[in-house]
Structure formats: C-alpha cells, structure tokens
Amino acid sequence: MGVALTHPYREFWPDADDGKAVTKEDLAYYFETVGAWMMPHIEGRPLSILRAPEGLGGQLFFQRHAEPHTDSFLKTMPLDGEAKPYFTVDSVEGLISLAQIAALELHPTNGRPGEPEVPGRLVFDLDPGPGVAFSIVTKAAHQLRDRLEVLNLVPFCKTTGGKGLHVVTPLTAPTTASSDWAMAKACAEEICARLAAEEPDLYIVNMAKKHRQHHIFLDYLRNDRMATAVAPLSPRAKPGAHVSMPLTWDQVTDDLDPKTFTLRTAPDLLGKAWADYHKAERPLDEALRRLGKLNFANG
Questions:
Q1: Boundaries of each DNA ligase D polymerase domain copy (predicted)?
Q2: Which is nearest to 219 in space by CA: 254, 252, 258, 185?
Q3: What is the CATH number of the domain that holds 155?
Q4: 66 and 149: one domain?
Q5: Burial of residue 101 (number of CB atoms within 10 Å: 0-12, 13-18, 19+)
Q6: pLDDT tens, 113-125?
Q7: Residue 163 lies in a domain
C-alpha cells in the first residue's frame, strides 16, 4: 500500500449493509482498489473532505484547507482569494493518505485539472423531496439526458450515495474567455428552469424546503468556481457505507436501487461505467448557442 496507517482497525462504519464493520484499513484498501479509476475525476482540483476521526459515532466535520503538517502524499493548492491552500491529491497514495486522516467523503470542485478558474464539467443534482419514488428520479435523469444531448453535450449518471442522482457532462477547455463560471452556472440554471417550466408538478428550482414535497429539486448550484459535488466512487458518511456509483445509462432503470453500491460491493460492480467520459468533452460555447436557439418542448 505504501502508506502507513495508524489504528488500522478503527471502525468508521458499523457495517456496509452486510453486518461487518468497515475499518480504516478497509477504507484504505478500497481507495487503493478504485484509486486509478477515481484519480482523473479528482486530481488537480481543490478538495473538501468530510472527516470522522472516531467513525460515524463521533464528530464529523468538513475540512477544506490543508494543515501545516500535511502528509507528503497529500498536496496543497493555493487559490486566489483564499488565505490558506486547499487539499488536492495527485496519486493513489494521496487517496490512501486521506483514509489515514479519516476522510470518509471526497468533494472536489468541478474545474479543469490544475485550472480551478475554468469550468471542467456541469453537474446537475436531482434531489427528490418527500413523496418522490426513486423510480421517478431515474426517469428524470433520462429526461435531463435528452435535454443535454440536444445541446450536443454528453451526459453521464451516478448515484449520489444518498437518495438522488447526479447527471454530469464534461466540458472542453474553452477557446474564448467567455466560457467562465458565470456562463457555466447560467447555462445549467437555464436548462433546469426550462425543464421545471415544462413540468412544474414534478420539478422545482427553488431550494426552499417548503416547496419540496412531491417534487424533484433541480440543483444547478454545483456549477460555480468553489462549489463541490461528491466524487464518483466516494463513500458517504452515512449508515451502510454506500458510495456515489458511476452508472451506464442502461442501469438507470425503474428498479435501480442505490443501496446496492457500497464500499465493499462497488469495485466488482463498476464494469464499463463512464468508459468514454474523457472522450466526451464538449464546448460550453456551443451548448450556450444551441440553448439560445432551441425550445426543448419543440425538440
């Protein structure tokens, strides 16, 4: 493994829906197993982590800024406007070092690797309110997929590790200065707003909880310079040790059960999900031009 672990048998999760505790060592081996897959989606980006030094039964806290004694495998990234550097990782050993400091969740920003000021992907969070069956969320993901493909974007889907789904579309490096975070956020907001206008009984773009009953909140707010989204394959700091699982679109069906994917089961279930992700980058400028011309309802 190449990284020393202290207290390797400390229990982080009571179980992974299998009656067996998940330890620090288990988390480290999980990151070692899936690390090569994860790295392209997190390396070179500012990283916020959710830590639980004593496991789920103890205190949980988010940490964004690296500490002075940061492990040699954990890198730091200075950012304009930030007094302290952020965590970042550039190796599987860095991921394992995150296990050593009890980082149960990994939340990178969505810029391009090494270029946090440049949008690298759009992330749409489909967050169901009370009374919305998960089968409705899967249908919503396909509906959003159709909208994005009209804009010549290539969407991918993953579970959040909770009750929702993320739809993610990678972006090429911009050829003009116009493709900044303000434009990325405006594009995502407009896509969501149009979808909500077409089906107001199902979708909302207002995050107020009083409006959430029987609706799916189309959260476009991940698309900002320092906004984050849970990384693909990141575990979640919740009972069951579920992970944010990358999916093929064929898996996004009415009977999809996000609880299937845990820290123990995910490596063997990964298959060919997101296999063409890094060949699927598309320009935001073109999507914006098409968005200005098209009415979704008319195709």
A1: 23-272
A2: 185
A3: 3.30.70.3300
A4: no
A5: middle
A6: 999 999 999 999 9
A7: yes
In a domain? residue 5 = no
pLDDT at 297: 45
CB 93 within 8 A of CB 2: yes
Token pair recorded at residue 83: 């007094």
- Give the Cα separation of 288 and 293 in Å (integer): 9
If we measure between CA atoms, which residue out of 40, 22, 1, 54 comes closest to residue 279?
A: 40
- Tally the domains of the chain: 2
The answer to whether 198 and 297 are in contact (CB under 8 A) is yes
Q: Quick one: pLDDT at residue 1? A: 73
Nearest Cα neighbor of 148 from 120, 124, 173, 172 is 124
Give residue 195's domain range: 117-225+279-293
- Are 88 and 220 part of one and the same domain? no
